[in-house]
Amino acid sequence: MAxxxxxxxxxxxxxxxxxxxxxxxxxxGSPGRGYFALLGSAVALLGVGITxxxxxxxxxxxxxxxxxxxxxxxxxxxxxxWVGIAHSGTLISAILFLFRSGWxxxxxxxxxxxxxxxxxxxxxxxxxxxxxxxxFYWLLPYPNERGLWPNFKSPLIWDEFAxxxxxxxxxxxxxxxxxxxIAAARDVATGWxxxxxxxxxxxxxxxxxxxxxxxxxxxxxxxxxxxxxLSVHSVVxxxxxxxxxxxxxxxxxxxxxxxxxxxxxxxxxxxLLVPIRKLFHxxxxxTVHHFENLAKLCxxxxxxxxxxxxxxxxxxxxxxHPDERAAFWYRAFGPFWWATWTMNICNAFLxxxxxxxxxxxxxxxxxxxxxxxxxxxxxERYVIIAVSxxxxxxxxxxxxxxxPTWADWGIMAGSFGWFFMWFLLFVKNFPAVSISEVxxxxxxxxxxKAVHA
Amino acid sequence: MKLVNPLTAIFHPPPTPGVLGVFGHLDATxxxxxxxxxxxxxxxxxxxxxxxxxxxxxxxxxxxxxxxFTLIGGIAGCAIGAWITLYMSYDWPIVLxxxxxxxxxxxxxxxxxxxxxxxxxxxxxxxxxxxxxxxRRLGTVAYDARFTNDKFGIFVPCAPERQxxxxxxxxxxxxxxxxxx
Lengths: 453, 181
Fold this sequence. Notes:
Chain A has helices at residues 17-25, 33-59, 74-98, 108-129, 155-186, 191-200, 208-241, 253-279, 288-319, 322-333, 337-349, 357-360, 363-390, 406-429, 435-440. Chain A is an all-alpha fold. A four-stranded antiparallel sheet of chain B has the order 2-3-1-4, covered by helices on one side. Chain B is an alpha+beta fold. The two termini of chain B are 28 Å apart. Chain B has two domains: 17-49 and 149-181, 2-Layer Sandwich (Alpha-Beta Plaits); 66-132, no CATH class. At the A-B interface, α1, α5, α7 and α15 of A face α2, β2, α3, α4 and α5 of B.
């Protein structure tokens, strides 16, 4: 188990409990210029998004490039993209926890924080998309003077419940995991930070009584989060699969979307971990071994996604329904062929390079590939949502050409700024790697085989 | 007569008298736990930077009651999910092609999500009630900042006249440091 945390270069004895505490709490110190440059760019992007959003609020959804029959486009694409990003966080923190994967300890905090911020980002898009944004609360089942209730047979309401639950549960899961680490940071911090961590640590001292309830509770939270994460993207996929649009109406959608979500999420974890590791000097805790495992996860889910792509085309052809065939022909060879082939190349072909150990252990190569996977996964959602609608074969003569506008791209860019801003603020102010869980996979200090710093 | 602020007794209670041992090694801690239990001590506190099954086993603790919170919360959530969907459907019926107004299959999604939501929140409550409020109760017990870093610790509450005996016991099992509180 120790090899999970210790890189090949560093001798085993270097990574002790004390080393782990010091290395991780160092991320809370002065982060250097690179960090502020990244944070500044994130805030600038967010500014672009807010400006576009203000225009959209003032002049209405006409600014987004909607044209009949494409009324779900870039905003819903972004929604599904960000919900998907969220998924690998819970996979790494809950599912791999239940499977007792030692390597998850060094990366799960980053993944879990990513989950929370990605859901926060995703949740904005349905609200932007509804048009009269100030009536967003109509989605909630609240008693009102007309005695109206939401339609619980609609997948959109399921989605609201699924996303709401997912956001709540992933947030409490993140906070729960943070408590012992905040306490560890409290005990080495000074000044105002000591006060901050004293309050947020909630009096944690690591007593036998506290650990007894905490470990049990954490296990149950993981056990609840595991079916939840599988359900959330299934429900998101039913937003489409329950409709009769060719290209949406498929029973394969739930597993296809879940695999795609984990795939894009793992890629995003790699995208985030590479700069974090460099900026905060965590090379000894987050090693090539971790990146290789993430790459393997990427390869597995990427293969499932590639298989689902093939199945989609195969059933469209083999099913013999002319509308279904027309929709998939339009997808591959219609005016949006470039989006479809970007998705196919980035998601299905490029990750096959991960079969080579040389690529899996090369961090720069993984970083570049993870960005391509993210681009590919964004286009996957774009192709499924906007291109399926644009190519709707029922009344082709009435279909107007569709093109996204600056309001679409601006708000999308803003969402990246919003996400990265929260993420960067988090890793700077709270332990970005789990202190107590990294210690758990180390051999405990014993008299027989003393481990010295 | 000196007036005593009654809140002081609640928020700043006087420290519990006892002995605090700081251990650098897990096996030494386990040995001390065994010796203390053998000597009839039951109310001592063990600090550790990480949860270890060895410590739990040495203490012979019962399984945490948090699981009852999870179970009850989950069942309650499922029931609430069934209730809101069915009640709201019949309160404002949307009749479509003679299909049932309250239709269970789509409501299973809501029931499932509510099970997870309520189960998770009540698990948090369970941990809070059991562990964090225990911290409030333990506010009077001696603590060392190294216990969240790399040291294990045992605090044995005892009357001042017995402190010498406990101190000797902790030292003989390999405590790096022993302090009276």
